[in-house]
Design goal:
The protein is 78% helix and 0% strand. It is mainly α and 206 residues long.
């Protein structure tokens, strides 16, 4: 994927996830610093974990000012305009799905470009997509979303795997868009239809 396109997708995903983190902070009645911290962790956490795993140090989030200012700006906007943002529950869910789709692809492609194998790259893409949200939920005292909500990690892994396979056989960048779109549609359908991973036999979600 071209560097500029990868950067723009990364920044867009960071902004979207940072907004969701800041919204959690507002609902937990944290101050502006708490909103920035949760927003920053949500937006950057998964990418930092990926960079550490693939040996890209220091992580891009710590050396490129654009990666740092983006989640701060998104968090402050949510903090200031939270009454309006808070009423956009469905829209926030859609934005979160968009961020998931963007990050699973960009994370997987970066891992593949670093020389990782197909499965390892797909797992790194999934980690990029869900890592920040897991950190956010733990810090906010919530059960991480991947354990309590509709299908979340599975669409991310699928989108990441498709992107890696496309990179492996040398298909064009348009295939990354298709991979992200598949993840996005799957996640949105899970939200709309309430699809969830199966529980052990005899248990009820109640």
């Amino acid at each position: 994927m071209p560097d500029l396109a990868l950067l723009l997708l990364d920044l867009l995903g960071i902004a979207v996830f940072a907004a969701t983190g800041a919204l959690v902070a507002v609902r937990k009645e944290l101050d502006v610093f708490g909103a920035i911290v949760l927003g920053g962790i949500t937006g950057l956490g998964g990418g930092v974990l990926r960079d550490l795993l693939i040996g890209s140090v220091p992580p891009a989030a710590l050396v490129d000012w654009r990666y740092l200012i983006t989640p701060v700006a998104a968090a402050v906007i949510v903090f200031v305009f939270h009454p309006a943002v808070g009423r956009m529950e469905k829209q926030i869910g859609v934005l979160d799905a968009v961020g998931l789709a963007l990050f699973c692809v960009t994370g997987a492609v970066k891992a593949h470009d670093a020389g990782l194998g197909i499965i390892a790259s797909a797992l790194c893409g999934m980690l990029t997509a869900i890592g920040g949200g897991m950190m956010r939920d733990v810090l906010a005292g919530r059960v991480p979303v991947i354990f309590r909500e509709e299908l979340y990690a599975t669409p991310a892994f699928t989108g990441a795997l498709l992107a890696v396979l496309a990179a492996e056989i040398g298909l064009g960048p348009w295939t990354y868009v298709v991979s992200a779109a598949i993840c996005l549609v799957w996640r949105l359908l899970a939200l709309w239809r309430g699809w969830r991973a199966p529980l052990p036999p005899g248990l009820d979600r109640g």
